[in-house]
Amino acid sequence: MPSFPLKVTRLAFAQLEKLSPTMAGRIAFELFCRTPSRRPKGTKAKQVFLNGRNRLRQASTVRLALTRGMAAAHHLPADLRAGEKKRVLVVHGWGSRAEYLTDLALGIRQTGAEVVVLDLPGHGASSGRRLDLKIAAEAIIAAERHFGRFDGVVGHSFGGAAVMMAAGRVFPDFRPFHPGRIALIGSPSSMGEVFHGFAAMVGLGHGSIGAMRGRAMELVGARVEDLDGVGVARRIDRPLLVVHAEDDKEVNVGHAQRYIGVSPHVRHLWANGHGHRRIVSAPEVIQAVASFLTEADGLSRSDVRAVS
Question: 193 pLDDT exceeds 70?
Fold first, then answer.
């Protein structure tokens, strides 16, 4: 059953659409890009956040200048005792922040890697209250410009979609992002599906959806259909690990299945039982991602594994 705020939102759009489908579509896109509160929701989330904040005390924070505002990047230096050092970027999802990915970041760091955890604009210690894929891609590219080329990158949920857009140079205003390896955890592959899912949720009609798509094209500079990770995977053809739980209720497993057979460089890891959020802290997932990104996994290109 829809929540009361959602019912009110649907009613408001229904009334606005009668007056101006164009206005309804433009407002819907702004709502789509509006980032949620940075405050943890609930006792459990607050404890996870506090634990993550304590762990990040060992990191130095760099503020990366963007076209509008800045993005905060938390730098965890490599273990000085390590031999050849890898550099890995970690990117959170929508409504998340660096503190929630410290299990993953520190697990990767245990391989001897230097790790950078990025707060996307509108999240964590970064500025703003608005985020779209173009803004996120700019932040990712800014991190590479500051720290140098990353040997690997892992993105969770929206963060994974942003990584693919940056790597595929979907936005020609920016230079391409060049990570050696990419891992996606619970990430949508078709932003068009996400886009239309949101439009259906708030009850937009055909005319308003068209206006929403037009506004997206105007601000982002790409058609909704072009915001597709599978197309990027075909073009860049580099090692890609797709991690997903079939029980993910926020990003359905079909997004991960779309990558099957795209390239011999693509591998899948089915982390069933971990859902959408717990998956980033699952020890077996962290181990697999860390090994893959630091090229210590020893798996053939065609390996498909499952953990539960």
Answer: yes
